Amino acid sequence: TNQPQINTSCRITQRSHFMKNSKYLIKFNITITIIILSIYFLPFILLGDSAYFTIHDNLDGEYVYKHLLVMTGQIFNFSTEAIIPNVMNGIPRSAYPSGLNVTTVLFYFFESHIAYIVNHIIVHLVAFWGMFLLLKKHINCDDLSVSLNLIISLCFSLIPFYTQFGLSVAGQPLLLYAYLNIMNNNQRLWDFLIIIMFPFYSNLILVALFIITFLILLLVVDTLNKQTLNIKFLLAIILLGLVYLLVEFQMIYSLFIHESYTSHRAAWDRWKDFDIPSNLHKSIQIFISTQYHTGSFPTFVIIISALLASVILVKRKILNEHFVSLVPSIAVICLIYGFLDWIVYYLKDAIPVLRYFNASRFYFLLPMLWMLLFAVSLKEIRKVKMLVPLIPLLLISQLVVLFYSNIEYMNNVKLLMGKKIDYPTYSEFFATKLFSDIDRYINRPKSSYRIASIGIHPSIAQFNGYYTLDGYQVSYVLSYKEKFRGIIERELDKNDALRLYFDEWGNRCYIFVSELGKSYTFSKNELIEIKELDLNTPILKELGCMYILSSVRILNYKKNNLEFVKIFTDKNSFWDVYLYRVK
């Protein structure tokens, strides 16, 4: 009669011992998480404007848009007729980020490089917290999974997001957490605040349509399962769409309601890859490394985990609804990315917007889906006792992969160690002292003349207050593109790749030179010269261009009716700049 009491006591003691160990493990993992996040942020904080910031689609564009809005005093100009005069003889204000977006507002309160770092930290912290809440509440809900959820959330937060896009990718788990609460009729005011906040800290063009499509699919599946429509969930989707319309009303009004200008995107003709091996290659490529705008990282550790989990599930004849929904979703998104050209070809007449809208951007959902698959897979692996030791190995491997595949972070670590890198740092890139020297030499108001750049991003001159004929713009006036093409027509004729790049896309409205190709970062240590430049200088003059700034020497400048003025150099600049006057 005493035996059951002894057994019960043993079980209680064992459970108490387990809970105690579990708490210690959780505290240990929380400590590790804080340490690793601190290590991740530290190089940016210590280096400041001497840090390396990603250049492609960042310092050459998105970053400078916000700097320009503050510099011109247009950040909170909500007029649908407003113009930014500094670029391309006047760009509609509606083509720039909304003044209601958090990433833009940060530039108003902080110096530009500090705004970048502050935003960088916020985005990664929200990524961690959002993924942890999602896993803890809706995916791996048991107490045993807390430590696992912490480390997977850390993995997600270390993805090298393009943080100038705000929470477009990093905030998706937090948003999904809120919607799943509503779907399960467990919503709070906080969930609706998350939904309202998200459009103020994300990008409509990049993610809004794809996130809303994803949520609608969730609603359809839920309706089929429960045989009833969840009205609250539907209203929450509508709420998200309405807030996006509010935040981006300038752009929407200009493009779709008032149609104040015809965007160059109307002339896009990008979708021409009908080679199936090439399409498959693109699908495989994004499958194994995601897409750089979303924060590229190798997925092989997660693939190995998923394969192990699938073997376990098949052997045990278990249907894991999360697993069987995540794997096809990832596969379909990768196939859409690879075969989009076929989709556009067959549907462009029925859906004309496909001609000038990148419908493959469902890939912005991939980082979240991959990490959810990682979480689900590790949970299944944990159920097999002999495979449990693999879990720390897989987690550590994924963390190492994320650190070493993060070019921005690794370059900053090298800088902290006193090593040289192959790219310009933030201060070397914008070279403010060098461009101030040029300004003092020209000695006239910058608004009184226009410049163009060769072998160097126009964003650098724009950052330094110059008025440029060229630029990298998501949307600008089509007639300007056609006029500008006349300047570089003969150079485009020499190089088919450049001609197609400009004619079929054209977001980079640059002075393209056949000899330089699509390169714009020629350092002062490179002995590069342009021998046969052939520009239509009269059109340059007609558009108001008085000077050309080139990072490389132009040997036949006289043939192009240019006058060499002076070479400007500075020890803290990545560039030497050759100043040419347009005769």
Which range does the strand content fall in? 5-15%
Strand order of the largest sheet: 3-7-10-9
Low-confidence stretches: 1-6, 8-15
User: Structural class of the helix and strand makeup?
Assistant: alpha/beta
Topology (elements, then pairings):
Layout: H1 3-47, H2 55-59, H3 62-71, E1 83-84, E2 91-92, H4 102-109, H5 112-139, H6 146-157, H7 172-183, H8 189-197, H9 204-226, H10 231-247, H11 249-257, H12 276-289, H13 300-316, H14 321-338, H15 340-347, H16 366-382, H17 390-404, H18 407-416, H19 426-430, H20 432-442, E3 450-454, H21 458-463, E4 471-472, H22 478-494, H23 496-504, E5 508-509, E6 529-530, H24 537-542, E7 545-550, E8 553-554, E9 562-568, E10 577-582
Parallel strand pairs: 3-7, 6-8
Antiparallel strand pairs: 1-2, 4-5, 7-10, 9-10
What does this structure look like?
This protein is an alpha/beta fold. It is built from 24 helices and ten strands. A four-stranded mixed sheet has the order 3-7-10-9. Strand 9 and strand 10 form a beta hairpin. It is globular, with a radius of gyration of 27 Å. The N terminus is likely disordered.
